[in-house]
Design brief:
Blueprint: H1 10-21, H2 23-32, E1 43-53, E2 59-62, H3 73-87, H4 90-96, E3 105-112, E4 131-135, E5 138-144, H5 147-160, E6 162-163, E7 169-178, E8 184-190, H6 198-210, E9 215-219, H7 235-240, H8 251-262, E10 267-271, H9 279-284, E11 289-294, E12 297-305, H10 310-326, E13 331-333, H11 342-346, H12 348-357, H13 363-379, E14 384-388, H14 389-393, E15 403-406, H15 414-422, E16 426-429, H16 444-449, H17 459-463, E17 465-472, H18 482-486, H19 489-498, H20 506-522
Parallel strand pairs: 2-3, 3-5, 8-9, 8-17, 9-10, 13-14, 14-15, 15-16, 16-17
Antiparallel strand pairs: 1-7, 4-5, 4-7, 6-7, 11-12
Family: Belongs to the glycosyl hydrolase 20 family.
GO molecular function: beta-N-acetylhexosaminidase activity; hexosaminidase activity
Main location: cytoplasm
């Protein structure tokens, strides 16, 4: 065949020769079309019986017995979205043709079984995301307790659909019963170091749903900028954002993110990190930050939140009261990491306060003093809280249901996970998943191998591991590079947190992940390549 093409332009001949020489490789790639589930379901059985799906006649419908119906806009929306993913432009083409071919599989019935399908609710840490899916002659049934499980099942169904050489959509006879290994599967994005336009945040929520992630940890403010527009303290973003109008998230922007996420079964956990990481807060709020001293006079620079003034706590009480109503999730992330003691040490008023309190020179006691008062403030809003590990490490008294976010000590996280869970706290892991760190080659492999339960501890301790988060800190990331830097590397975390602990075969993962990455590309997500290869439908650019 390649010799017949000898009169075509040189590059084509070369391409075909290549295909001939590496025929095996191409065969392998073709095969992948049919086995590209990501993350891998808990129980999965398929057979070589294939059914055709016609874009003109195939439908996703509510099962007769379902407790949800057409009034469930969350599902209606998801039906449209997944139909589009599966058929894209085909629907219009086939409809315009005189006759559509007979579809072997005419519909997917979505059957919600519990009395309350939760159409208008929010997902939570306790949400049941399990589902079962059976694809057989004439119809397919997706069964879930509530809409959240149905969303996960719709994603899986769409991944089962593949395109044959004629562009016809096929699906094999399949039985799946699936549920997540961990309840908290998150992505952290940082909108302070660089402002992230809404469009980028929404695109990543789309990609998260494709990977069955269920928590968007919005590290919304930090030292460099304060883009969150507060109704109670508008001066925070007026003076603390990079620009008071173009680089802010208005209340309606925030609402849109929360609703877009909800429609995809994703919680939005906002982080307002204090007492460190608050330089931008100081621009708008007088006396909030500690004045640093150089010798006996103020140096003009400022440190962490001033923990000795009552006004600091009055401010926090009002701000967190607002935050607790803006973000519906049951948890708020309070940060508490990397508090720099040097400024506190330099300040004579703080030194005096330390003496009065009997803290000696132990500034972690002052930090604890601050955090404990903050926790009381947040507890009064009826929210639960997540904190970075330092808060635990420094011995701050914590409510029993506090979630400790482990991030330090890369690559060693085992001791900290053991300590946190031995103390009876819920733990989530990020140490091996700082995806802002990039290195040449296939760094997804180490990301994939890390396991949050891989530490020495009792079963009870292992049960306290609620999951983990992939973090993409923003020092070197903005809208230009965020998506390809995050995907498909974050997909490796997605499978670790969803699939069974025994799913560890890197070779098998590679073939599925390469294909999953192509699927994300096809759906408009510019996910970067894993290695040499091609996608049937390449990224077309902007
Ligand atoms: C799906 O069916 C096709 C056609 O019978 C078969 O070649 C392929 O191996 C099947 N794939 C899976 C994953 O069972
Ligand atoms: C701060 O509040 C506490 C308790 O509410 C009070 O005892 C104390 O005098 C106040 N300090 C200042 C400086 O106002
Ligand atoms: C668990 O403890 C054993 C014995 O002390 C040690 O050899 C091993 O490395 C530990 N495993 C982890 C994951 O920390």
């Amino acid at each position: 065949m390649l010799c017949l093409l000898k009169f075509t332009p040189l590059f084509l001949v070369v391409a075909v020769c290549h295909g001939w020489l590496f025929g095996d490789l191409f065969e392998k790639q073709k095969e992948l079309d049919e086995i590209s589930l990501w993350p891998l379901p808990q129980k999965y059985q398929s057979s070589a019986v294939a059914f055709k799906l016609s874009a003109a006649s195939f439908q996703i419908v509510h099962a007769k017995q379902s407790t949800a119906g057409p009034s469930c806009s969350l599902l209606e929306n998801a039906f449209r979205r997944y139909f589009e993913y599966m058929f894209g432009e085909l629907k219009r083409q086939e409809k315009s043709r005189k006759k559509a071919f007979d579809s072997d599989l005419s519909e997917l019935q979505v059957w919600i079984t519990s009395a309350d399908p939760e159409c208008d609710g929010y997902p939570s840490l306790r949400t049941d995301e399990s589902y079962s899916l059976s694809v057989d002659e004439t119809s397919a049934v997706l069964k879930a307790a509530n809409v959240w499980g149905a969303l996960r099942g719709l994603e899986t169904f769409s991944q089962l659909v593949y395109e044959d050489d004629y562009g016809v959509r096929n699906i094999n006879k399949t039985d799946i019963s699936d549920f997540p290994r961990f309840a908290h599967r998150g992505i952290l994005l940082d909108s302070s170091r660089h402002f992230l336009p809404l469009k980028v945040i929404l695109a990543n929520l789309e990609a998260m749903a494709m990977n069955k992630f269920n928590v968007f940890h919005w590290h919304i403010v930090d030292d460099p900028s304060f883009p969150f527009m507060s109704r109670t303290f508008p001066e925070l973003s007026q003076k603390g954002a990079y620009h008071p109008f173009t680089h802010v998230y208005t209340p309606s922007d925030v609402k849109m993110v929360i609703e877009f996420a909800r429609m995809r079964g994703i919680r939005v956990v906002a982080e307002f990190d204090t007492p460190g990481h608050t330089q931008s807060w100081g621009n708008g709020i007088k006396d909030l930050l500690t004045p640093c001293y150089s010798g006996s006079s103020p140096s003009g620079s400022f440190g962490p939140v001033n923990p000795i003034l009552n006004s600091s706590y009055e401010f926090m009480a009002q701000l967190f009261k607002e935050i607790s109503t803006v973000f519906p999730d049951a948890y708020i992330h309070l940060g508490g990491d990397e508090v720099d003691f040097s400024c506190w040490k330099s300040n004579p008023d703080i030194q005096k306060f330390m003496n009065q309190q009997g803290f000696g020179t132990d500034y972690s006691k002052l930090e604890s003093f601050y955090i404990q008062r903050l926790l009381d403030i947040v507890a009064a809003t009826k929210k639960g809280y997540m904190v970075w590990q330092e808060v635990f490490d420094n011995g701050v008294k914590l409510k029993a249901d506090t979630q400790i976010h482990v991030w330090k000590g890369r690559p060693q996280y085992q001791d900290e996970m053991a300590k946190v869970t031995a103390a009876g706290f819920s733990a989530l892991l990020s140490t091996p998943w700082y995806l802002n760190r990039v290195s040449y080659g296939q760094d997804w492999v180490d990301i994939y191998k890390a396991d949050p339960q891989n530490f020495n501890g009792t079963d009870a301790q292992k049960k306290l591991v609620i999951g983990g988060e992939a973090c993409l800190w923003g020092e070197y990331v903005d809208a230009t590079n965020l998506t390809p830097r995050l995907w498909p590397r974050a997909s490796a975390v997605a499978e670790r947190l969803w699939s069974d602990a025994s799913v560890t075969d890197v070779g098998n993962a590679y073939t599925r992940l390469a294909q999953h990455r192509c699927r994300m590309v096809r759906r408009g997500i510019p996910a970067e390549p894993l290695f040499v290869g091609h996608c049937r439908h390449e990224y077309k650019g902007l």
